[in-house]
Amino acid sequence: MNDSSWGAPPQAGYWGPSDQGPVQGDAPAGPAYDAHHAQQTRPMPIVPDVPAHGGDQDDDRGAARTGGPLFRDETQPPSTPPFQPSPPFQPSSQHPPHPQQQSLNPQEPMTSAAQPAPAPQKKSAGRDLGAAIGVGVGLGVVIVASLFVVKAVFVGVITVAVVVGLWELTSRLVERKDIKAPLVPLAVGGAAMVVAGYVRGPEGAWVAMALTALAVLVWRMTEPPDGYLKDVTAGVFAAFYIPFLATFVAMMLTADDGAWRVLTFLLLAVVSDTGAYAVGWRFGTHKLAPRISPGKTREGLLGAIAFAMVAGALCMQFLIDDGTWWQGLVLGLAVAASATLGDLGESMIKRDLGIKDMGTLLPGHGGIMDRLDSLLPTAPVVWLLLVLFVGSG
Fold it and tell me: Most buried of 85, 202, 239, 355, CB within 10 angstroms?
């Protein structure tokens, strides 16, 4: 130990500048003090008082110790911490803490009687129901009016929905992924596809689909080759996903009871979506596909199946010529499955793009594509089953 250390106690055998040994009459050579009789060998130093909440507990002798050693050579070994804080105060259950008292445990949040715990939030529907219902009723009036007045007007409604859906999808692809699917050939080819399906049936739809894909390939050649493959791939996918699937709605319309077939298709899709939403919101606890669409539940899927099967039995019995109730059960089950898969498919696309809705055109619903997601894959299913059950006429 350095001799110049401030406050250092005399070392054993050292009592002055000379090394001639201890002075006569002083204490014999040995330790300058004894740990158990320190007060008899030299006066205790005056140490400041330590607050009660910061010092150690009393030792076995009942004497209060300070937060550190009394002397510099009384240091503790490194393995023992020099300071042991007192455990946090634990209030007795018979004496609750003052309303303004903070918890001494840093892991606990501060509580106050003046600030009661927030009440649990009610389950939210997740969308503006008023706007959603209003927009849905408005669209239903337009569709029904055009469907039963002039069939060609309803074909125009399908065409407008297809073009707007293509615009929404291609816009989101450019914004989020820098994929430039050419909109002009898609819009022109999509409109031609719907009209061809209505006029010429499945053959016309397939020919229009092939020509639209070719137009996408050629149109994209006017741009630099960088990204050509991803752009044309997205363009062909968009042509199949929106206008080609929508063409089956136009083909339903060509039958003698075509208006009722289209109405059955729309009713079953809407009822399936409503049943899934209502049952899932009220009783849903088990997630159906949490990584794709966290809001969908297995209980909601069962609700969609039950609602759609009942609606299918009623529609096939009373709306479709030569239809029977059991065919409606099968049709309703197929619609619930295809509508759910279509909804999950578009949810997968939106998650890949990192967006919640495809657009904002329809308040309470999102965009046109957010309403077509379950309708598009359901159209060929309903068309095929109706042809099998009651024929194409």
Answer: 239
